[in-house]
Amino acid sequence: MEKRDVDVAIIGSGTAGLVAYQRVRKVTDRVVMIEADQYGTTCARVGCMPSKLLIAAADSAHQMANASLFGVTAGQVRIDGQAVMSRVRRERDQFVEGVIRSVEKLPKEHRVLGHARFVDPHRLMVERDRTSDLEIQAERIIIATGSRSAVPKMLEEARDRLVINDNIFEWQDLPDSVAVFGPGVIGLELGQALSRLGVRVRMFGIGGAVGPIRDDAIRDYALETFNQEFPLDPDADVKHLERTGDGVAITYRHPEQGQITETFDYVLAATGRQPNVDGLDIQNAGVDLEDSGVPSFDRYTMRCGDSHIFIAGDANQLKPLLHEAADEGRIAGDNAAAYPEVRAGLRRTPLAIVFTDPQIASVGLTLDEVDEECKGCFAVGEVSFEDQGRSLIMGKNWGLLRVYARQGTGQFLGAELFAPAAEHMAHLLAWSVQRRLTVSEMLEMPFYHPVVEEGLRTALKQLNRNLSIGQEPAEGCMECGPGV
Ligand SMILES: Cc1cc2nc3c(=O)[nH]c(=O)nc-3n(C[C@H](O)[C@H](O)[C@H](O)COP(=O)(O)OP(=O)(O)OC[C@H]3O[C@@H](n4cnc5c(N)ncnc54)[C@H](O)[C@@H]3O)c2cc1C
Ligand SMILES: NC(=O)c1ccc[n+]([C@@H]2O[C@H](COP(=O)([O-])OP(=O)(O)OC[C@H]3O[C@@H](n4cnc5c(N)ncnc54)[C@H](O)[C@@H]3O)[C@@H](O)[C@H]2O)c1
């Protein structure tokens, strides 16, 4: 059996693994990155990028279908499912090829294809397809193995009609109907996009959650809005699911019609993701494990206990987002390279964006966290986008934004948005939280006219008023011209 001896071994060549590799490489050449499946990353291959490509097609269809609002008609909108899926794959492949090209530029001795497992805290066994197993002795190890779809047993009854994000983008055409299980981030993004592309969609959830929304006012607004496009029951009572000749028959309790059975072409499981730590023989790594099987680790150093092992990206379940995986890869890489010197790395203000329409975004602390942090001494400001100037102009005048700040100091702490252009406003808000701005300082910033950020200003003014810092905003204030 071949044996290798390295300073740092990185398990997984996704975003976290690749960033970690770049950092380690600055310090040592005795590094190896092990990949069990394919190069190209989850983000580019089956995650962020193909999902946004599908959403872009849906946005286009939606805009055309609604153009008559502006007195513009383009005739009957026709959606060519094959062309939609073909563009998704074509552009997706470009992103994947870009990643593969950069991996292939790395020295051959730094990359190994095979499935890694712990033999002991310093030894990994890599099962390779075409060659014999490889034993790697590593002084330090970074786990960057990502996550995979967690599919409830019941959905397996859909058999060949069960899809997840790994295979949905391989569709050659759009189906007629899809039952989406899980109105979380993936379910909402893909479900709304499919619905706007003419697919009959019904969404089933459990427990009442809608996406990552934590503020009930925003959740209720979002639920009502999504239900105007496709039926979404966030706490569905699904009795039975089975593969039939026509597709998948689902028996559930309909809010008005009682128990009914509806047949769909496909079932999309978007019911959460589980970390890829179970295939690692992690019990041999000599680190403490949480109940989930994920090693206990420090979120500032990414170090598992006081060991030489670090964990970054979706594998640690902390914040399964691309920019967080990259940050964690950087911290883990720097620390594995400098070990035994281990330093706290920069963790940024929480920021999450869901690419629905309107978009959902959360920034900083959630409402519950604000309450806990301020021991109840906080205030909330709010704006509806139904009467907002720029949103009305664009025909996108729906949504709600709520902002939170601490009583006394007026420090801005967080926000939740279901609003047009939320991806942009969320960045301004995240930067304000991270700079520890007060609401008054935020209001000193320039606001152009007419823009959706004027709506944000209205919410901030109301927040300052509720903090007993600012004045009552004038009704129908003309400071920014017509619109709030
Ligand atoms: C549909 C979808 C849409 C998304 N959209 C967004 C978005 O818009 N914005 C955003 O911020 N985030 C998004 N995400 C989340 C984002 O894609 C992930 O947070 C990110 O890709 C995680 O990167 P990673 O490096 O941790 O894991 P990955 O990129 O999954 O890399 C892990 C690698 O480890 C390998 N591996 C696993 N086990 C082993 C082993 N034992 N030995 C060797 N190798 C192994 C895997 O094969 C894989 O290549 C989305 C995710 C999905 C699924
Ligand atoms: N725009 C983005 O940034 C983006 C996009 C997609 C994914 N992601 C990342 O990927 C992660 C995983 O996304 P996800 O949507 O799979 O998970 P999620 O945790 O966001 O949502 C899963 C949903 O499925 C529901 N659910 C669980 N079991 C169910 C069942 N048996 N029946 C019906 N519903 C059930 C849950 O209640 C929850 O609402 C996200 O948390 C996010 O970090 C990010």
The CATH H-level homologous superfamily of the largest domain: FAD/NAD(P)-binding domain
Proportion of residues in β-strands: 15-25%
Q: What hetero molecules are in the model?
A: flavin-adenine dinucleotide, nicotinamide-adenine-dinucleotide
How many helices?
13
> Can you summarize the main beta sheet?
7 strands, mixed
Mean pLDDT: 96
**Secondary structure tally: strands:** 22
Question: How much helix is in the residues?
Answer: 25-40%
**The top level CATH class name of the largest domain:** Alpha Beta
> What is the CA-CA span between the terminal residues?
71 Å
Describe the structure.
This protein is of the alpha/beta class and 484 residues long. The chain has three domains: 2-148 and 274-338, FAD/NAD(P)-binding domain; 153-272, FAD/NAD(P)-binding domain, CATH 3.50.50; 351-466, 2-Layer Sandwich (Enolase-like, domain 1), CATH 3.30.390. It is 31% helix and 24% strand. The protein contains 13 helices and 22 strands. Strands 1, 2, 3, 4, 5, 6 and 17 form a seven-stranded mixed beta sheet that branches. Strands 8-15-9-10-11 form a five-stranded parallel beta sheet. β10 (200-204), α7 and β11 form a beta-alpha-beta unit. α3 (48-65) packs parallel to α6 (185-196). The longest helix is centred in the N-terminal third of the chain and has 24 residues, at 81-104. The protein is globular and about 75 Å long. Bound molecules: flavin-adenine dinucleotide (FAD) and nicotinamide-adenine-dinucleotide.
